[in-house]
Amino acid sequence: MSLLGGLLFVVSALVVRGSSISTIEENYLKFPAGFLIGTATAAYQIEGAWNVSDKSENVWDRFTHEPRPGRIVNNDTGDVACDSYHKYKKDVELLREIGFDVYRLSLSWSRILPNGFANKISQDGLDYYKKVLAELEANGIEPLVTLYHWDHPQIIEDLGGWTNEEIVDYFGDYARVVFRELGPRVKYFCTINEPEEFCARGYGLGTKAPGKEIHGIGEYLCSHNVLKAHARAYHIYDKEFRPTQNGTIGIVLSLSYAYPKDPDDATSVETHFQFNAGWFCHPIFSASGDYPSLMKEKIASASLEQGYPRSRLPEFSQEWIEYIRGSSDFLGVNHYTSTLVEPGVESVVPSVFADRKIILSPDPSWPRANSSWLYVVPKGFGDLLRLLAKEYNNPVMYVTENGVSAAEETNDLNRIQYFHDYLKEMLLAMNRDGVNVKGYLAWSLLDNFEWTQGYSERFGLVHVDFNDPERKRTLKMSANWWKNVLKTRKLEPVPAGPQSSCCTAIPV
Ligand code: NOJ
């Protein structure tokens, strides 16, 4: 063979090999048949209509109305929010226009049960959700309904809220009403959204509703009752409703991924995983149930050092361990960001954050979004999904939230880049590595009330003008990108153009 011939052979072999690699990669980047793609919202963040009809006050109504300067950016409230209570038809029209398969919404407990208890059911409250579900059905969109996204009735809070074990019964009663009245139209239920957030910040640090500062004790009482209440709702559904309704029900957790600051420090990574995921996953998804032993040991020894007569983490009886174990058909994964970890103590003592004895920080090279906590680390998403699959026997997972905050803009190329890069990691974890993800929901359909950040952080695919009494909605570029993804059912490239505030390195 001549020199030229030899060269051509090498080049063509590379091309063939290159194209076959890219074909494999392209196949990995398709959504499998039956995969559900959607977007998510939550009642308090979008509905408004906080006091219409017989709806009663909930903990976020109280938390935002209490005159505490500095608690919420601009003293914003969810009183009107996106006014989705009145504009739900427009929201469903947007969902249809973009082409989503599923819509994750949550129900307001105090809209359905104004007394908090099941002795009085609000007809108006039920009718509202029945109309929303009918509208979704008429437009061919599957609902995924969360029973509880942080907004329990104030009356329940006056009795201690999630720190009072009676809530297990109250939540079960509420769940039963929902399953009976709305269940015939719902195939996917989520029980409770991100308990670690409202337990650690609502009953620990006091920075979220209900604003209780009982750190070290409050968050663990809360998580204990959350796990029981979740399992109660699961068993009610399983026994009383699944036989006729045939749906599926699971819990939704806020899960992040950790990399070690010192490459040899596997201990801090494991500690982060057990306190972040294990706290709720181990009792439900592990073979043995109960809290992770690492967590039990760390909290017991810190409690002892601090002079407590027993661990601040309550214990489950064997009966409860078994009742909770296996009480989820799927794991709902809310994922946004990753962190670095190293040994040390952060936050107030005692608290769940101090008990774990690790310090979290971002890698300086990670771009930051518009939220102080949200660093863009696509690889962490794939690593997290693979780790969850490995630890919990590859459970069925739905990514129930994933998204990014950005400045007020409609040409949100940065958000497209985020979705593109995160979806790529998820698709590789699924299609190449066999992780069992069955659906993905982008957070969020609309710019909305971002809790203590009010309306200052925008996560929507659709812009909402909060100065307009009509709350005008305008599709952002990211919504149009999603339209293409939903048409082709594969990862679409990011359009060229300048990217703005989100996803460019912002000094920490
Ligand atoms: C998770 C929460 O479930 C949701 O309510 C919130 O808006 C997003 N994170 C973004 O912070």
Q: What are the salient characteristics of this protein?
A:
single chain; 508 residues; alpha/beta; TIM Barrel; eight-stranded parallel β-barrel; three-stranded mixed β-sheet; 17 helices; 44% helix; globular; binds 1-deoxynojirimycin; glycosidase; beta-glucosidase activity; Glyco_hydro_1; Glyco_hydro_1_AS
Describe the structure.
The chain has a single domain, classed as Glycosidases (TIM Barrel). It has helices at residues 3-28, 43-46, 59-65, 84-98, 109-112, 123-138, 154-158, 167-182, 195-205, 218-245, 266-285, 293-305, 318-324, 352-355, 378-391, 413-432, 477-488, and strands spanning 36-40, 102-106, 142-148, 188-193, 248-254, 257-260, 331-334, 338-343, 358-361, 397-401, 437-443, 462-464, 473-475. It contains 17 helices and 13 strands. Helices cover 44% and strands 13% of the residues. The protein is globular and about 60 Å long. Strands 1-2-3-4-5-7-10-11 form an 8-stranded parallel β-barrel, surrounded by 5 helices. A 3-stranded mixed sheet has the order 6-8-9. It has a two-stranded antiparallel ribbon with strand order 12-13. It is an alpha/beta fold. The chain binds 1-deoxynojirimycin (NOJ). Residues 42, 45, 193-194, 334, 401, 443, 450, 459 line the site of 1-deoxynojirimycin (NOJ). 1-deoxynojirimycin binds next to loops. Keywords: Glycoprotein, Glycosidase, Hydrolase, Signal. It comes from Cephus cinctus.
